[in-house]
Design goal:
Blueprint: H1 9-17, H2 29-34, H3 36-39, E1 49-53, H4 59-68, E2 74-79, H5 82-94, E3 100-104, H6 110-115, E4 123-128, H7 138-146, E5 149-160, H8 166-178, H9 192-201, E6 204-213, E7 219-222, H10 226-235, H11 243-249, H12 258-274, E8 280-283, E9 286-294
Parallel strand pairs: 1-2, 1-4, 2-3, 4-5
Antiparallel strand pairs: 5-9, 6-9, 7-8
Helix pairs in contact: 8-12, 10-12
């Protein structure tokens, strides 16, 4: 689960997401975030506490905050992108939602989070929407987050399935071969069992792990078109004045080196063709969603829902 090259995870996320902040909510992300509170409703106990990691523009955090406000509940949103959180704060103000605290911190840096008020053994729910695959060591991150859950508390997160966003996945695979870094780490996801195993390794009891359809149509590509797909991906955002597209194109920045590009292009075409079946590569947009519970200590009543 490590990167083939050296990359500063914090600065990488800031570089990729700060420019996307103004238009982030114009994508499919609000629809996806809205499902979190449906998949895992907040507890009905008084004053529940929820921690939203990689909160971004606050889509998940604000959704839960509305639901638990009358019960005296509080939400904490954590992110390293100040521009994304500025959008979140603005929305909270506009919508008169006052039970959210925003914390600027790397979600893998437990010490920094706790120094800024995030407390251990406190939260009824921890959420992390569409961000786990941005972390080079998801196992270590999740192990740290478990410490923040109260006994009986729950974690909910998602990862793109092994059949989604295929060009990015092949870029990651080829990156390991040619020494190019990508700020995305998905090769460990082989199916539902991969996510369940991650939860088991940190001591979480899996309550549900299921497939959720994404919001884009399935696409069939010609298995012989790997080089065309490679070239098109690298051209994305280079001549576009749209900041969102430029940032998305930044995911592939290390592949634009002439020498790396030359070596990676043929490798990408081979890997793309290998994914084909009957001459086609089928991309299916979807996520694995997993909910796990921190086992309650003896004599401590856990989360009941």
């Amino acid at each position: 689960m490590s990167t083939p090259g050296s990359i500063d995870q914090t600065s990488s996320v800031q570089k990729l997401y700060n420019p996307r902040a103004p238009t982030y909510d114009s994508s499919w992300h609000p629809l996806h975030a809205a499902r979190y509170a449906e998949w895992l409703p907040p507890p009905t106990t008084p004053a529940p506490r929820i921690l939203d990691l990689a909160t971004g523009t606050g889509l998940v955090a604000l959704s839960y905050a509305r639901l638990i406000s009358d019960a005296g509940g509080k939400v904490t949103g954590v992110d390293v992108s100040v521009d994304m959180m500025a959008v979140a704060q603005s929305k909270a103000t506009e919508q008169a939602i006052g039970n959210v605290t925003w914390v600027e911190a790397d979600i893998t840096d437990l010490q920094r989070m706790t120094a800024k008020g995030v407390q251990e053994e406190t939260y009824d729910i921890i959420t992390c929407a569409t961000a786990l695959v941005l972390l080079s060591n998801p196992l270590a991150a999740l192990a740290g987050w478990v410490k923040l859950l109260r006994p009986g508390g729950k974690v909910i997160l998602d990862v793109p399935s092994e059949n989604a966003l295929l060009s990015g996945l092949v870029f990651e695979e080829i990156g390991y071969e040619v020494g190019a870094s990508m700020p995305c780490y998905r090769t460990w996801v082989k199916g539902q069992h991969s996510v369940e195993d991650l939860f088991h390794q940190v001591g979480l009891k899996v309550e549900r792990c299921f497939y959720a359809k994404g919001f884009n149509e399935d696409v069939c590509y010609n298995a012989e078109d790997g080089q065309l797909i490679f070239d098109g991906a690298l051209e994305q955002g280079q001549s576009d004045n749209d900041a969102h597209e430029k940032a998305r194109g930044g995911f592939l920045e290390s592949f634009r080196d002439d020498e790396v590009r030359l070596r990676a292009r043929d490798g990408f075409a081979r890997a793309w063709k290998a994914r084909g079946e009957n001459g086609f590569v089928r991309e299916v947009d979807g996520f694995w969603v997993c909910i796990g519970r921190k086992e309650a200590s003896e004599g401590v009543k856990g989360y009941e829902q």
